[in-house]
Design goal:
This protein is mostly helical. The chain is built from four helices and no strands.
C-alpha cells in the first residue's frame, strides 16, 4: 500500500521542511546515504549556533521527520 503524501508531496510538514532547507543543496559527499547519516547531518546543521530551549525544539522537530523518505529521495529511489 502506497503511503499518502500529506504536505507538498511529502508525508508531513517536518519532512518537507528538512528536505527543502537542510538537504536542498547537498554537499558533494552525499551520493548514497543512510538514515543515520542524514540524521547526523541535520542535527549538525540545526545545532550550529543553537542552544538551550531553541535547540531542544529543533531536535524535537527533527524527531518527527520521516528519514527514510528523505533517504529514498536523495538516493533516487
Amino acid at each position: 500500500m502506497k503511503e499518502e503524501k500529506k504536505y507538498n508531496g511529502w508525508s508531513n510538514y517536518p519532512t518537507w521542511r528538512v528536505a527543502l532547507e537542510v538537504f536542498g543543496e547537498l554537499p558533494p559527499e552525499f551520493e548514497k546515504v543512510t538514515s543515520r547519516e542524514c540524521i547526523d547531518y541535520a542535527v549538525e546543521v540545526v545545532s550550529d549556533g543553537a542552544d538551550g530551549f531553541a535547540l531542544d525544539y529543533a531536535l524535537a522537530f527533527l524527531n518527527t521527520v520521516n528519514w527514510q523518505e528523505i533517504v529514498d529521495h536523495i538516493n533516487g529511489e
